[in-house]
Write a structure and sequence with these properties.
Largest sheet: 8 strands, antiparallel
Order of helices and strands: HHEEEEEEEEEEHHH
Strand content: 15-25%
Shape: globular
Number of helices: 5
Helix content: 10-25%
Distance between the termini: 30 Å
Amino acid sequence: MAKARWTWLVVAAALAGVAGCEDGGKDPDGNTPDAGGTASGAQPGFGKDRRQPTGKPLTLPAGVQVVSGTLPGADDDGRCGDPELEPVGSGFMVRACLEMTNTTGGPVQVTFPPGLVIVSTSETYQNGMLVERVVVEVPPTPPGPGGADAGTPDPVPVKIPLHLYCINENAGPSAPSVRYTLGPVTDHPQMREVFTFLEGKDVAGDGNRVEVVQEAIYSITEDSGLTEDDRAALRDL
């Protein structure tokens, strides 16, 4: 059983006003800029554009399946309950629970690629995105309770916490009541540049480093794109 790698409430308080999804997107005069002409306005699902994101679907190995059509938000500590694997991703603001089954009879490695998006079913809450490549070993799914007299028992899926980054700065952070759908792996060109900067780097659990990544994402989703300061900060992680 995995333990949370940080305390959600402490982290959220530390980032309030800096990387909070609900607090940003305003110019120095306190005005919210229009999305038109910005990177966010050009990309479905990012910034103020709440259309369905575009990209390739997540590819899963044979015998491994996502259990349900919607993903519940994780609890305040980013956890999903037993049986639970280690979290996927390093983001603070979007935390959801992915349930999977593995009917192969043995462990299977599943690759979660950078750019994987989950989509909030309500525009009040933000979509989330994975920025690093993560490989998870999904154990074989055990049968459900009840024994032979219960007929064919339902399998017990494993729960995988997704800790993702906010891509809609003016929407609210995730909560246990929020529901998400599994989206595509984004084809956003500037996001791929961010992923390249992060290759081989581990920022999980480090609030300052996570903040650098989140601010670079906001430059893409809310403004005109990565700045040289963003690139320098990502390079120095």
